[in-house]
Write a structure and sequence with these properties.
homodimer, 197 residues, alpha/beta, Rossmann fold, six-stranded mixed sheet, two-stranded antiparallel ribbon, 5 helices, 11 strands, globular, xanthine phosphoribosyltransferase activity (chains A, B), cytoplasm (chains A, B), PRTase_dom (chains A, B), PRTase-like (chains A, B), Xanthine phosphoribosyltransferase (chains A, B)
């Protein structure tokens, strides 16, 4: 997605060989126009999958998931990382480790919002090790529903999350795939990688 | 906002005298069409204030803040409740207590995303005791910017947050003001309350 790549080139900040900061438009400050374009692009790419619901994880996935769901004309559910005192109902729960934050969260979705037989599109802002997406996919499986796709805003293709997900048979679409930013320069990989199913 | 009130009547679930669950469309599952309408309504109500940026707090404020910012044609910043390992930069920090979750969070906004002289619209999903909005307003003050308004999706008018904010001189617009839901029945108050400035 050229608009996104251009934004990454202009505003992305390479901190070290593994960390790219895009907090000026994606995960602290948000550019709403860009986020609408991101949602439209996800909707276009997954138009043929019959998505019935979008699933993401708080907080940074919410904006892209919302705009994608709007364009796909379905609802969005965001998994909670901390069980609210109000969530005293039956829930699907799984463990997700964040390498960036160096913490493991118990991720929760209330059962009433994820029934069986749904066609779920998982959306997240970043794909690195694939922990979050794998966790959400486990929840979808627990619910007896199907993951019809995984949409990622920025994939760090030099980490193994994309490979893990594709080898597990998931259709992964990343709007920007970064091959490397070693040396401080972002180099993009091709966007499309055939999935293995 | 009649559409929102209708949704609350249809899907809101009164847990007890203080807690109304609206997790089917606002803070766990999100109805994107309703959220766009909410953003439009905020943009309409604050059209005369010269907003330059929308500020909210993760996670449940993000969706309404994003759609409002889209319609107002400005960027949105969401304050983080947990400092990411990536946020190794100068930041505004304040303490915010959540009575629902019974925890105090250190709320952070990087200084580079909140300069002086901005006209800030604060958006949040719920107003009860006003802790979150007061915390965000303190951060705006620290930055040398002005809070031109506080937009709330659902105000629990029987708790004192709205009174505190209005008596502090803030212009508060709540799209649905709930007078009481004692006895399990939601009763709405008038939406507009004159602010004191």
């Amino acid at each position: 997605m050229e608009l996104l790549k251009e934004k990454i080139r202009q505003e992305g900040h390479v901190l070290n060989d593994k960390v790219l900061k895009v907090d000026s438009f994606l995960n602290h400050q948000i550019d709403p126009e860009l986020m609408m374009a991101i949602g439209e692009e996800f909707a276009r790419r997954f138009a043929d999958t019959g998505v019935t619901k979008v699933l993401t994880i708080e907080s940074s996935g919410i904006a892209a998931a919302l705009t994608a769901a709007l364009k796909l004309n379905v609802k969005v559910v965001f998994a909670r990382k901390k069980k609210s005192a109000l969530m005293n109902e039956e829930a699907y729960v799984t463990q997700v480790h964040s390498f960036t934050k160096n913490e493991t969260n118990e991720v929760t979705v209330l059962k009433k919002f994820l029934g069986a037989g749904e066609k779920i599109l998982i959306i997240d802002d970043f794909l690195a090790n694939g922990e979050a997406a794998m966790g959400l996919a486990r929840i979808v499986e627990q619910a007896g529903s199907e993951v019809v796709g995984i949409g990622i805003v920025i994939e760090k293709a030099f980490q193994d999350g994309g490979k893990r997900l594709r080898e597990s048979g998931f259709r992964v679409e990343s709007l920007a795939r970064i091959a490397t930013f070693a040396g401080g320069e972002v180099q993009f990989a091709e966007e499309c990688v055939k999935h293995q199913s």
